[in-house]
Design brief:
alpha/beta; two-stranded antiparallel ribbon; single chain; about 25% helix; 9-stranded mixed β-sheet
Length: about 600
């Protein structure tokens, strides 16, 4: 099926920002009636707004008329609008549209019937997708978003449910890899023009986890689709992430009898020791490890003495060995070559619970389920079924099996010249406490882009932000309430380049399924792959964000997040930026990411269809 001509838009996946600038004043059309006091729209209207001051545009035809829209030019025969009705969403009247593009890409679109300010935002999905999640993330306090001024759209990526079986179908593989998000953008823009009589002035994409991968795929494959991209915790090395990475975490914490070596109630002891050793290395003792690469913690200091009966305050030798494997990652048994560019970082320990460290010894390791779901149908090009974890070899030669689908699923092409030349802007963000995807992956991609394109050109269109203590797409002990959408709007629409921003404690962040697997219509964990024996949905890793954020030692103060490689430093006079006690300081770690077996995945490549 051919890909139709591309439209012009903006793509986002991201965090909080320090400056919100005035926007909505000066609309040329008559404004709608004021929102009732206390409603989200009323609160948003009282706050300053970013981006350009754009006129409010009203629909020029009825919502229900969209059912007659012809989408066969976009998705092929059978593509159509299946439903278009007025609905009330969070107290706002919208035209809610449901679309199916052939063969099985489902899309949901929400179009404001009042107050549309000519902007479109497309949302990514988490895990293996398979559902539609309309949750907006990394935009806490963004006025246009909070007031419902965006057209929103999201897709299930061409299949339903979290099983990886769709990977045996070449068309559904392509839909998940790249086609669904691109066609969602094209189809939604057509519907926008039909309803409002004009194209969006600006279009944005907001995604995390696989949604971050989807964001980068758009920038790399379809540089004219979006002008602003925010990619959070991107699963950009999909092939490695869902094989060697999670596979290693699973086998490292599995004993000879098949049970878990390390369980969740041991993690606070480990985490406390890490903080004692490494918290202050960044110059600020705050319960967070803001630069884990400076940390050289040895879990052996916690090993129980021989003959210890009460091991509650120490780790057994088996537990110490497991922790070392988790931190160190796999190496080729013959050459010692690193097989991963990075793994879980020091300071992330509490977030391991429910992912590769089960709640109790009777439960299986969830990372194993992630790997098995991907090995069967997605990762390898041989079409084999019933692939087990034992079939995954932790050796350099495995990369030869990962390479065939690398240019299909991965989003590691560092040549973003097409996107940059089109005026696109990119924000990358990642939590240092991520328990699913290593932030080192994102740093390695940032480095690869700079190596390919040069620092000066990259600085003109790309930023990377790292958030201490923040777990996968939110939550954790760190400051996971933030807004990257506002600075992105200012960058794209007004040419104001972003600098540092202030993130707020996770305990104040709203509950969110943003970027999390299974965060769709069913409301969360029910859409996940089959769980290990004994695991209940409520025992899974934090989905939504905030479960870990309630930890008693989570930070309570706002935190300054600086553009990489700069890092927050204590203000000399105690008066920092925007209510913090911090200013942006010089980098504390300047070494490049280590050499590893998959480094060629970050070289330019031709995408596979």
């Amino acid at each position: 099926m051919s890909i139709p001509p591309r439209g012009r838009s903006l793509l986002l996946a991201g965090s909080t920002i320090m400056s919100l600038l005035l926007l909505m004043a000066g609309c040329s059309q008559r404004a709608p009636a004021p929102a009732p006091p206390g409603t989200p729209a009323a609160k948003a209207a009282a706050a300053p707004s970013p981006g350009k001051a754009l006129a409010v545009v009203a629909p020029v035809q009825a919502c229900t008329s969209l059912t007659a829209a012809d989408l066969t030019d976009i998705g092929g025969a059978g593509s159509k609008v299946t439903k278009a009705d007025q609905a009330d969403i969070d107290g706002r009247s919208v035209c809610q549209v449901e679309v199916t593009l052939a063969p099985s890409i489902n899309i949901q679109v929400r179009m404001p019937l009042e107050g549309w300010t000519q902007r479109y935002m497309q949302l990514g999905c988490g895990g293996l997708c398979g559902n539609i999640n309309m949750q907006v993330g990394a935009a806490d306090g963004c006025v246009p978003s909070d007031s419902g001024a965006f057209v929103l759209a999201a897709t299930d990526m061409g299949h339903q449910g979290m099983s990886g079986d769709f990977g045996y179908d070449p068309q559904k593989r392509a839909d998940f890899a790249y086609r669904a998000q691109h066609l969602t953008a094209v189809a939604t823009k057509k519907l926008v023009k039909l309803l409002y009589g004009q194209d969006p002035a600006y279009s944005y994409f907001n995604g995390c986890s696989d949604g971050g991968r989807e964001a980068l795929v758009e920038a790399q494959r379809f540089p004219d689709d979006f002008s602003g991209i925010i990619a959070g915790a991107p699963a950009l090395i999909f092939q490695v992430q869902n094989s060697l990475h999670h596979g290693w975490l699973a086998v490292s914490n599995t004993s000879a009898d098949g049970g878990a070596v390390l369980i969740a109630d041991r993690l606070p002891l480990l985490h406390s020791a890490v903080l004692k050793a490494c918290d202050a290395l960044d110059g600020i003792k705050d319960g967070l490890v803001a630069e884990p690469r400076l940390c050289h913690f040895d879990p052996g200091i916690l090993q129980c003495a021989s003959g210890t009966a009460d091991t509650s305050q120490c780790l057994t030798s088996a537990e110490v060995e497991t922790v070392r494997k988790i931190y160190d990652g796999p190496r080729d048994p013959k050459t010692g070559e690193r097989l991963l560019v990075g793994g879980p970082q020091y300071g992330s320990e509490l977030n391991w619970a429910g992912v590769f460290v089960p709640i109790d010894a009777k439960q299986g390791v969830f990372s194993k389920q992630i790997v098995l779901g991907a090995l069967n149908g997605l990762i390898f090009d041989d079409g084999k079924k019933d692939v087990s974890l034992a079939d995954l070899k932790f050796e350099t030669a495995t990369y030869d099996k990962l390479r065939p689908r690398h240019p299909l699923f991965d989003a590691t092409n560092p040549d973003l010249s097409g996107f940059a030349d089109a005026g696109g802007k990119l924000m990358l963000w990642h939590g240092w406490g991520d328990q699913h995807i290593s932030p080192i992956n994102t740093i390695a991609y940032h480095e690869a882009v700079e190596k390919q394109m040069g620092h000066a050109k990259v600085e003109a269109f790309e930023r990377l932000y790292l958030l201490p203590g923040v777990a996968h797409c939110g939550g954790g002990e760190g400051p996971s309430s933030f807004d990257l959408l506002s600075p992105m709007m200012d960058w794209v629409e007004r040419g104001i380049a972003p600098g540092a921003f202030v993130a707020h404690p996770a305990a104040t962040a709203s509950q969110s399924s943003f970027g999390q697997p299974g965060g769709g219509k069913s409301g969360g964990k029910g859409d996940l792959p089959p769980l290990p024996a004994g695991v209940k949905p409520e025992d899974l890793p934090p989905l939504p964000s905030g479960e870990v954020a309630t930890a008693k030692d989570a930070i309570k103060s706002p935190f300054l997040i600086c553009p990489y490689p700069s890092i927050a430093a204590a203000a000399k006079d105690g008066q920092g930026v925007d209510g913090t006690h911090q200013t942006c300081g010089a980098p504390l770690f300047t070494e490049a990411t280590p050499d590893w077996a998959g480094k060629d995945f970050f070289q330019p490549y031709a995408p596979r269809e």
